[in-house]
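thread from #wetlab-drylab

HS: before we spend reagent money on co-crystallization trials with zinc ion, can we at least see a predicted complex? here's what I'd submit
DV: go for it
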Amino acid sequence: MLFLTAPSDAPAQSRRVSVQQSSSAGQDHFLLLYNTHTAERIDIVYRRGEQYIPSALAQLDYFLRDHRTGEVRHFDPRLYDILYDLTSSIGHSGGEIDIVCGYRTSSTNESLRAHTTGVAKNSFHIQAEAIDLRMPGIDTLKLRKAALALGRGGVGYYPRSDFIHVDVGRVRQWCFDCPASLIAGD
Ligand SMILES: [Zn+2]
């Protein structure tokens, strides 16, 4: 195991180097995430080659917890691949992603539904299969196009709140509360 000794909390610098030195088969997949609700930041290698790293997934589960209740649920790691591929496809591989929403308990989801619009009753967030995000310095519309181009799961666009939703459900898309100009040019 070539990278057995590299801890998941190793400095980002050393990990970037190991990525360059590794073959594509053993490539490190890393994420740099900032949680807009808890102000926590995580910089982590969650997958090495074809292997997800259990300890890293556990850290990500906690990071993406329901910030209102503190409840943690195990996320579908394919979501992390979508995030990673998204940053790569726009030329910002491993660039920082702002997490607007991760896991939601049913009660939190119901509360959100009561007080805001655009929240689905059977949201993928309740299953820990969806993430809402934006990237600092990146046009969210560009991010949406990149997510659609990946062709994996659902992609929702929320221009007024400036974020996209990605999930591992069937491939579909929507734009919530879209300005007419955007619909016309879509
Ligand atoms: Zn969402």
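DV: The domain at 26-184 is CATH 3.30.1380.10 (Muramoyl-pentapeptide Carboxypeptidase; domain 2).
HS: ok that's useful, forwarding to the group
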